[in-house]
Specification:
The protein is mainly beta. The protein is built from 1 helix and 26 strands. The chain starts with 8 loop residues before the first strand and ends with a strand.
């Protein structure tokens, strides 16, 4: 079987044993519906005949729907892959399959047989434009603290159908992104506020974009510790130490009061086991940190 571009190559055989009856290269129709009823199909045979057809077709990039009808059985192969399998003895019925085909030549093979009774075979092609890529984009978390990383994830849900060629990021991220999807970690150390992430993807069927957002709050972040977690009674002491960022004001309880909002130390000599709490206020709220000193 060959695959000419201008006509169907038709090979007729005896269905039951494969004996070759002959071949033709005459039918130029791409879509067809041939109903022989109970009459002669070809080569003086009306029953127990099989027809193999091959053809090459130059197609544009589109989503194609192929419909193959037959009485009795039939199969359709597109580029060597089985697309419709309606083999077996039965009255006329049609089945279809859909495939995304890209610009260029494609081969089509139809296998048909008639065992007995009525005989009919039909083939029809319909198509629609390729869809634009459908962008799936997310950011986690959507509410974060300053210096926390934001994870931006993306994929194209209809990659096979849309054949995307490029994806580009804009907003609070940038650059070319893989059409196969991926994940980026985005730092929030530069600023507080809203972060917007847009991904635009394009293909032969057009382009689409999606935007997601996250909010970054600026809470104080501190380290707070005691130089010794256990002391004897006075004059033994422990030194409280702290460093902070994003704090506008800080204080320590246990009668200490206001302290530096960036860093500092304070000697303490509690009479009893005590918990000390550092509380700092920032632009978007406050955080508290605790350390304990045990008196033996």
């Amino acid at each position: 079987l060959t695959y000419p571009s201008d006509v169907w190559h038709e090979i007729y055989t005896v269905h039951s044993n494969g004996q070759c009856l002959g071949e033709r290269k005459e039918d130029t129709r791409w879509n067809f519906d041939v109903d022989w009823g109970g009459g002669i199909i070809d080569f003086n045979r009306s029953d127990n005949v099989e027809l193999n057809m091959g053809r090459t077709r130059n197609l544009d990039s589109r989503v194609y729907k192929f419909t193959l009808g037959s009485d009795d059985g039939s199969r359709l192969y597109v580029d060597g892959e089985l697309c419709i399998d309606n083999w077996g003895d039965h009255g006329y019925e049609a089945k279809d399959c859909s495939k995304v085909l890209f610009s260029g030549n494609h081969t089509f093979r139809i296998n048909y047989y008639e065992n007995g009774g009525g005989a009919r075979v039909s083939f029809k092609t319909e198509s629609v434009a390729l869809p634009a890529p459908q962008v799936n984009l997310s950011v986690f978390p959507t509410l974060a603290g300053r210096d926390d990383n934001l994870t931006v994830s993306w994929s194209i849900t209809n990659k096979a159908e849309s054949n995307p060629s490029a994806c580009n990021a804009s907003g609070d991220w940038s650059g070319s992104k893989s059409v196969n999807g991926g994940r980026d970690e985005v730092s929030t150390s530069n600023r507080r506020g809203n972060y917007d992430f847009t991904l635009s993807c394009s293909g032969q069927g057009g382009s689409s974009s999606k935007t997601v957002s996250a909010k970054v709050l600026e809470y104080p972040k501190c380290s707070f510790s005691a130089s010794k977690s256990e002391i004897q009674f006075a004059p033994d002491y422990s030194t409280l130490s702290w460093t902070c960022i994003y704090a506008s004001s800080c204080s320590i309880d246990q009668g200490i009061g206001s302290v530096s909002n960036t860093s500092g130390t304070k000697k303490v000599s509690p009479a009893n086991t005590s918990d000390y709490t550092l509380t700092c206020q920032g632009l978007d709220g406050q955080n508290s940190y605790k350390t304990s000193i045990k008196v033996k």
